[in-house]
Amino acid sequence: MASAFEGLPKDYFDFFKELKANNNREWFEDNKQRLRQSVQEPLSIFVEAMGPRLKKISKHFVADPRLNGGSIFRIYRDVRFSKDKSPYKTHGGIHFRHALGKDAHAPGFYVHLADDEVFYGGGVWAPQPPALQKIRETIRDKGKAWNTAISGAAFTKRFDGVRGDALSRPPRGFDAEHPLIEDIKRKSFYAMSDSKPAAARKAAFADDVAATFADAKPLMKFLCDALGAPI
Hints:
- With 231 residues, the protein is of the alpha+beta class.
- The chain has helices at residues 10-21, 25-30, 32-57, 129-141, 143-151, 153-158, 181-184, 197-200, 205-215, 217-226, and strands at 92-97, 108-113, 118-124, 189-195.
- The chain is 44% helix and 11% strand.
- A four-stranded antiparallel β-sheet has the order 1-2-3-4.
- A hairpin with a 4-residue loop joins strand 2 (108-113) and strand 3 (118-124).
- The protein is globular and about 55 Å long.
- The two termini are 29 Å apart.
């Protein structure tokens, strides 16, 4: 029988706080067992707890509690193209991606858990050019549906709007005078709700995350519709 989620342990956040000050292989190797017990296993329990909650929102998003290849991001950073060569991420990340997606660039719900910030919500981060083009064209052509998705009472109460880095100029082929050009210029489209580490230490955290995902569903539906993905 699976363990019930009762909140993340205090050492989860202590681990990442200490990792920030000791982001090196020697410290990491000395704390690998701690990583397993205080970080990975609690996150796996959380993902498992989110499974039935997520199904109530949509059956097309995956809650996979496996530590390798599942919903939990690896702690190892990709430093190949980064000036920052520190080898380890200093936060936990979970991506409940769409069943049709193969990576973090697919539409999905996300949870970010660091010792100094916690946030969660849904959207699509840095989609590949063909997908990005489809989203931009759908915003352009179905502006009413876009506005409806991001202006509902539950959405606006929960979120401070749609976030995402944007181009400084309109993308090629789009009218600079279009009323939604600021959204069309975005390279990512997501809505996040900020919380506190203390909230993640309580059993009720899973319910609050699920409620937040439900409030993000209008945005997720628009994005999935634009990409031809069921929701």
